[in-house]
Amino acid sequence: MKFRVYRYNPETDQNPYMQGFVVEASRGMMLRDALLAIQDQDESFAFRHSCGEGVCGSDGVNVNGVNKLACVTPVAELRETVVVRPLPGRPVIRDLVVDMSQFFTQYKRVEPWLKHRDPLPEQEITQTPEARDKLDGLYECNLCGCCSTACPSFWWNPEKFLGPQALLTACRFLEDSRDQAAEERLDALAGPYKLFRCHSIMNCVEVCPKGLNPTKAIGQIRARMLKGSL
Amino acid sequence: MDMTLPRRRFDTLIIGAGGAGLNAALQLADSGLRVAVVSKVFPTRSHTVAAQGGVNAALANVLPDSWHWHMYDTVKGSDFLGDQDAIEFMCREAIPTVYELEHAGVPFSRLDNGKIYQRAFGGQNQDFGGPQAARTCAAADRTGHAVLHALYQQNIRAKTHFFDEYFAIDLLRDEEGVALGALVLEIESGDTLVIEAKTTLIATGGCGQVFRTTSNARINTGDGMAMALRAGIPLQDMEFFQFHPTGIAGKGKLITEAVRGEGGYLINGNGERFMERYAPTARDLASRDLVARAIVTEINEGRGCGINKDYVLLRVDHLGEEIIAKRLPGIRESARIFAGLDPALEPIPVFPTAHYSMGGIPTDRFGRVVVPAGEGAEEVVPGLYAAGECACASVHGANRLGGNSLLDILVFGRAAGKDIIDYIKENPHHRPLSEPSLERAVAHLDRWDHQPEKKPAGKGKAKPAAESSVRELREEFRKVMEDHAGVFRTPKSMAEGVKQLKAIRRKLRGLRLKDQSRVFNIARIEALELENMVDVGMAIAVSALGRKESRGAHSREDFPVRDDRQWMKHSLYFREKDRLEYKPVRSKPLTVKGFPPAERVY
Prior knowledge:
The complex is a heterodimer. Chain A folds into two domains: 2-98, Ubiquitin-like (UB roll); 101-229, Fumarate Reductase Iron-sulfur Protein, Chain B, domain 2 (Orthogonal Bundle), CATH 1.10.1060. Chain A contains eight helices and seven strands, in the order ββαβββββααααααα. Chain A has helices at residues 31-41, 101-109, 129-133, 152-156, 163-174, 182-188, 203-207, 214-229; strands spanning 2-7, 17-22, 60-63, 66-69, 82-85, 92-94, 97-98. Chain B has 16 helices and 20 strands. Chain B has helices spanning 19-30, 67-77, 84-103, 143-157, 223-230, 258-261, 275-278, 288-300, 321-327, 329-339, 404-426, 435-446, 470-484, 491-510, 522-546, 564-567, and strands at 7-15, 35-39, 55-56, 118-119, 136-137, 161-164, 166-173, 179-186, 192-202, 235-236, 241-248, 265-267, 312-315, 348-357, 361-362, 368-372, 378-386, 391-392, 569-574, 579-584. Chain B is α/β, with parallel strands linked by helices. In chain B, helix 5 (223-230) packs across helix 15 (522-546) and helix 14 (491-510) runs antiparallel to helix 15 (522-546). The longest helix of chain B has 25 residues, at 522-546. The interface between A and B is large, with 55 and 63 residues.
């Protein structure tokens, strides 16, 4: 099976280039296995990966123009020649390894932790199963970055627009019946950029390897804001 | 040269950002100490994220329960090799620990009354071996993900200093043995950094990558265990490695025990529920060592499934769409991706997969690293702590119960954090850095930057260095471990394994890197990881060969039964000369009566 992968080593390369590799495909082979096979041929080829089952979120890459997690992408589903590039819009450190610090900065800006202000009970803070259901589709995010780096609004305004991932996380806390900081959270999202730069292009929904829907979450936040302003 | 290395100073250094490291960091940062957490991956990539089924605590939300019953199950599960003081501590602490996690934001699944959902798991009963218990607190089948993210989020709030994508090379200790911090490598730049600290906590997780077929992530290379070995500290009970009964056949990916807890069961090639023959009462919810052996036995005796009769089937389809969607969404996704099927419609082919190291760096119940001090006595290594899978407290003994792993990392991460606070009160100053210790650490790293010196010919059959790569040797090594230290062990095979590992160790010394660049050099990291894996693999193989009985996960054909008279003791493996020592099991709990060894029936 033919691959073309993005190569760039800042110590030796003036410019990035694409390099071809041929990998013997096997039954059930995932893209991560293919990238490892490429590494067997050339140990200088760099990419991040770890759990191999889509939960750690390390191996987001752009394959044939679409962001995917390499470890849960069967090569059998990919059109040849398979073109593998780093996640778009982020500075490249080396080969497929990009600098995700801006992405994590935006994540931290939504203050992604539970804010429960009442005195804590001796046991658990209770939550009905229905209230807990509201977190499904929000808490499973693995911070792979496929969504935000597929979002044109994030490419243009990565400092100002929080991006789909961070907004999904903001929604996760807004929807948590135990969280008591909704007003403060909504205030922090006000203004033309942080939230409202989302133009519902929905690339995020299309690429999310966990099947999550950040656009819907952004809609939920907007609805809450609207309700608050009435 | 060493004086030119940049240095940072913190009150405490934590190596590893999984559940143990982050729970310790949270205690420390919230108490106002300066905490550095070094992790070779971004914290939420740590393997805690992959824990599925849940965390045990006797909350009694579903069925009556008590920490004392939990303690009994854990002692029995350990095949009476666990230290009962540490086990009592863990089972008592489980309850406040889970509530604390819930308060920290973990999105646990809920019962109709709003309390945390608890499910049945293997080896756990009410009333000291009575009816099945429901003790495992779960967030669907993504509990580890929920826990790790919540802990990371709380650490952001607490302003913990994170060194993301820094690889720890070696521990630094002074001439008196006091821990001083570590030499670390920034992966992005290739630069080294000395982190000086009053205390150092090793929380680097497991080493499942030493086996070819494993549920463990690529990062689980036993780095902290190997660092401890190189610093002269032994590893305890390394022969006890858990093979999880239900890995996806041929892939090793984990299918959680929660599947059986929710009512799933195993069948062999004849369609028979074979666990009934091995564990008449608990059946599919017997302890993991027993279920893994049952599966391998069925296959060895020709009752496997498929064309090659080399797996068994895990049935879930009878549970119905709703339970599967609600309680087991993650494994449904895994089964679809890696086995190409929907478990709601057809059974999953499974085979045991290398999963968890019961052994590790010896600690007491405060997370303090302890080493032998002659005449059977032990002493604490000042300033050095270990918690989580890399440590051995020892609460799992010869076999860990499902749901006790998340519990172990959280309880002992927290306990270590609390003890570190006290230690720093009494030892408020940094000690001078030991230059010889730093030089050794620097030399360890530098070795990969140069062509190793050619040894005079004649010493071995080892391949010349140029012919072998780190990657090739890694695969050779993992195959040796799988073939010689697996579910069933024979003396001949184990001895052969040790011999082959020695050859691999020699070859490793002759390897070099083709890629000598600095920026994000994966090959260099893999070389350092391979050194760690080989050290840990040798600890497993030598300890296994040494233990002449069968207990828990260690099962050998020549000594098929447990021998409490001679072997109710912990192994200690030292890297120097591959030496073994033993130390007694702590059979006396903190406040209750001890559980004497008894026959283990499920």
